[in-house]
Amino acid sequence: MQGTKHIHLIGICGTAMASLAGMLQAQGHRITGSDAAAYPPMSDQLLAMGITPLQPYHEAHLDPTPDLVVIGNAISRGNVELEAVLDRRLPFTSMAALIHDEFLRNREPLVVSGTHGKTTTTSMLAWIYETASKLDTKFTPSFLIGGVAENFGTSFAVRESSPFILEGDEYDTAFFDKGPKFLHYFPSAAILTHVEFDHADIYADLAAVKTAFKRLVNLIPRSGRLIAFDGSENVTECIAKAFCPVERYGFKEGSFWKLTNFQAGAISRWTLLRQGEHFADLELPMAGEHNALNASAAAALAAGQGVPANAIIEALKTFRSVKRRLEVRAEIDGITIIDDFAHHPTAIRETLRALRGSYPGRRLVAVLEPRSNTLRRNVFERELIESLAIADRVVLAEVYQSANIPAEERLHPAAVVGALNIAGIPATLLADADAITTELASSLQSGDVVAILSNGGFGDIYNKLPAALRSR
Question: 286-304 pLDDT, tens per residue?
Fold first, then answer.
C-alpha cells in the first residue's frame, strides 16, 4: 500500500489479527479495530501499542470510513460491521492475503505448520535466528507467531532483512475464502510437525485435513526444503509428492535428524544426529518429548538455511517459551497453577505428560474447559478420556456455548466424568469458572499442580483461582 492508510480490523483481538495490527502500525498506518470481547495476552499487547479494541461490534466503528477493512476469519455473515462493509462496498481483504501482499514479497518465508506445536516451534525458530543475528545480521528475522513469545515479549517483528518466520495456520482464511491461511504464504522452506483431524467445524474428516497439508507441500519450490516429523503416517502421506528435498526428524532409526539420549525433566537434554553424525548436544528449559521434537525441527530448518550449530545450541538453552504454553501463572502455599492452551486430546496428553516429568511425585489436577471447535464435539470423546486419565484428578467445565453445536455432535462432559470415575480417576463436572474456583479453593493442598486447559478466557479463572487461594 502506498502512503498512510486508515485500516480497520474486524476481530482485532485474535492472536494473528492483533499481530497484524502492530505490523501495519509500524509501517505508519492508522489502525482501528473491533471485537466482541478482549482478553490477555493480545488485549494487553494492543493496549501497549496504543490501540484500544472497540467493543462490541457496531456499524459506527466504520466512521470515519476506513481505506481498507481486514475481515478476521472468525467473522461470519450477520456480523453488523461485516454487513455494513458489504452494504457500503468498502474495500476489504483477509489477514493472510494482506500479510502476503505487504510483508512477504521479496522475502524468504519460513513457515511452521502442523496440527500441533506450531506456536512453540515458530517461537523457537525465531529465537534461533535472533541469536544467530548476533553473529551475522543476515539472520535477523521478521516473525509472526500465534502467541506472545517470552523471549521477545511480543508476537511479531518486521525487520528489513530477508528471513520471515511465520506460523502457518491450517484454519480457514475468511468468510469469502475457505482455504487455509497457510496457502497464502508460499514458503521457501517449511516444517510439518503433525497431521491429525482437528477443526471439526470446517474440516469434514481427516482426509480433508490431509488435503490441505498436501496443498501446502505442493507450494514449496524445488530449491526449498521441508522438515517433516517421522512418527506419523499422516505426515508421510502428506509429503509423498513433495518436489523439494525432505528431511525427516524424530526418534526413529534412519531419520535424517535423529533425537537420541533423551533425558526428561524440567530441563530436557538430548543429542541430535544429522544423517547419523553428531550435530549437537541440546538443552531446553522445557519438559516433554514433544518440546524436544519441536526444538529439533526448528534446529533442523535453521541449520539447513546456514545457521551455525553454536547459535542453535545457545538459543535453545535460553528459550523462554510462549505465553499460555505450560506457563506458570502462580505459586501459592505450595500450589502451582499452570496455564496451557491445549485444545485437542493429543495436546492435552502431551501437556499432562510433560507436567508429570516436570513435577514428579506431585498430585496433578487437570481443569479443562471444552472450548475449541474440536473439543466441543464428541468426535474425540474416547481420546479425551484417555488423555485426561494421565492426571490424578480432573475438573471439567460445561461445554462452551454448547447450544451452537448440534446435539448429536456435542461432547457429553457427564459421560467423560463418569468414564474417568469408573477408571479410578476422581472427576467432577462443574458449571463454570466461578464454581470451579470455589471448589478448588477449598480442596487444593500444598504440592498440587493445577493445569488449566483452555484456548480462551475461561471466565478469567487464571486470575480468580490465585486470588481465591491467597484469601483462604
Answer: 888 989 999 999 999 999 9
pLDDT of residue 347: 86
Cell numbers standing for residue 368: 479443562
pTM value is: 0.82
Query: Cell 448440534 identifies what position?
Result: 406
Average pLDDT over residues 215-235: 97
d(CA 76, CA 133) in angstroms, rounded, equals 41
Task: Please report, for the domain that includes residue 359, its CATH number.
Answer: 3.90.190.20
Answer yes or no: do 288 and 392 share one domain: no
Domain range for 64: 6-95
Q: How far apart are the first and last CA of the chain?
A: 56
The answer to the question of residue 246 being in a domain is yes
Name the strands in the sheet holding 335-340, side by side, starting at the edge strand that comes first in the sequence.
Answer: 327-332, 335-340, 449-453, 364-368, 393-397, 427-430
Structural contact between residues 15 and 146, judged by C-beta atoms closer than 8 angstroms: yes
Residue whose C-alpha cell is 522445557: 286
The whole-number pLDDT of residue 123 equals 96
Beta strands in 130-174 (DSSP E): 142-149, 154-157, 163-167, 172-174
Looking at the structure of the chain, the number of domains it has is 3
Among 238, 293, 235, which residue's Cα sits nearest to residue 268? 293
Q: What is the per-residue pLDDT across 320-365, written as a single tens digit (0 to 9) for each?
A: 877 777 788 999 999 999 998 877 898 899 899 889 988 999 999 9
DSSP 257: E
**Residue-wise DSSP of 309-343:** HHHHHHHHHT---BTTSSEEEEEETTEEEEEE---
The amino acid at 145? I
The three grid cell numbers given for residue 156, joined into one nine-digit string: 511479531
Contact residues for 358 (Cβ-Cβ < 8 A; gap 6+) = 265, 266, 287, 326
CB 16 within 8 A of CB 95: yes
> What DSSP string describes 188-255?
SEEEE-------TTT-SSHHHHHHHHHHHHTTS-TTSEEEEESS-HHHHHHTTT-SS-EEEEESSTT-
